Amino acid sequence: MTPELKARAAAVLKAYEAQRLKIATAESCTGGLVAALLTEIAGSSAVVERGFVTYSNEAKTELIGVPADQIAAYGAVSEPVARAMAEGALSHSRADVAVAITGIAGPTGATATKPVGLVHFGLARRGAPVVHLERRYGDLGRENVRRRAVEDAIGLLERALG
């Protein structure tokens, strides 16, 4: 990750710590990169409550309670599933804020309606409606799609602070 992104993550941690807020992550296509970025920073244990890597559909259901019928109806890469992942990470943790990411990093896995580079995010904060963000980065290569998704996840965590 870039020095700029690491600096943003450090600022997020500092702001969350000042507000005594905890973070949880639920990651699919990023495979834990958001949690890794946050925990790379010394003192992150004061803020990062836990991270879920829910790469498979079964993990989404078993670990954070995403309804299997939602995955069947909309697909794992969808707004309803991203929202359910964020809500599930919040309800299966002691965090105050949860960010979730599900997408198609490529080079395989795309369909006509779900191209490589499509990523859905969910952001849940206790007592607030879940926020959804959709990005269509395009076929930038797996590494770049995942990096951009991490950047947007940090942006959502920044946004949750108000």
Automatic annotation (TrEMBL):
Name this protein carries in UniProt: Nicotinamide-nucleotide amidase
Alphabetical list of Pfam families matching this protein: CinA (PF02464)
Top-level taxonomic group: Bacteria
Domain CinA C-terminal: residue ranges: 9-160
